[in-house]
Amino acid sequence: MSKITTSLKRNVRRIIICNLAVILVVLSSTDSANAQSDWAATLYTGRITDAELGETAIGEFKFEDAYFVSLGLMRRLYTYRHYFNLELEGQVKKFFGNQDYWDFELIGYIRWLPFPWDRYIETSFAAGAGLSYATSVPEIEAKNYDQSARFLGALSFEFTFALPTIPEWSLVAGIIHHRSGADGTFSGVRGASNGIGMGVRYKF
């Protein structure tokens, strides 16, 4: 079992390093015109669940008495034809209710763009991975798991929906907020917290 865990940790580290390398290469090749035009601000709110990531994603959970509000600033780094974007987002979250702290996240996304019904509702799906720093150890994480930490990995998943007539505004739905120790890669933590929410985004 220890060999499997060690191998998993190495693979997770390699994935993170590869993602960071891709982001650095894309940043170095992005022209100034794209850098000035491909920004978005997102405001959303959500609530923490009592379930793990997979259960939260399929709706098998109960809500904890813990909420959050998030403000994010996103930049499109690269687009491959009309198929997908690479994006980078910084987020600031404020948690309240049964846990009270601030969370700062930096997440890299890959966003799938084409859907068959885009002429009616422009739709995208994004999955991201990055880092999360909490100003204190979240109380619900400490309650549900033997270990937690202020600095952990982060995952995020979302759908966006926009009317073709006003594409700069979009509804961001099904947002899943996930803090994770990546099976012990971060501070030996093997569990963390999950939340789900929705909000609005403005591109500028």
How many β-strand stretches?
8
Unreliable sequence segments:
26-36
CATH fold title: Porin
Count the DSSP helices.
4
Please tell me the CATH architecture by its name: Beta Barrel
Q: What's the number of structural domains?
A: 1
Helix content: 10-25%
Largest sheet: 8 strands, antiparallel, barrel
Q: What Rg is obtained from the alpha carbons, in whole angstroms?
A: 17 Å
The first-level CATH class name: Mainly Beta
- Compressed to H and E, one letter per element, the order equals HHEHEEEEHEEE
Mean pLDDT: 86
Distance linking N and C termini: 49 Å
Shape: globular
Physical arrangement of strands within the biggest beta sheet: 1-2-3-4-5-6-7-8
Helix vs. strand class: alpha+beta
User: Which percent range describes the beta-strand content?
Assistant: over 45%
Short description:
This protein has four helices and eight strands. The chain has 204 residues and is an alpha+beta fold.
3D architecture notes:
With 204 residues, this protein is α+β, with helices and mostly antiparallel strands. It has one domain (2-203): Porin, CATH 2.40.160. The protein has helices spanning 2-29, 32-37, 53-57, 139-144, and strands at residues 39-49, 63-80, 84-97, 101-112, 122-134, 151-162, 169-180, 193-203. An eight-stranded antiparallel beta barrel has the order 1-2-3-4-5-6-7-8. It is globular. It starts with a helix and ends with a strand. The relative contact order is 0.18.
Q: What keyword list fits this structure?
A:
204 residues, alpha+beta, Porin, eight-stranded antiparallel barrel, 4 helices, 8 strands
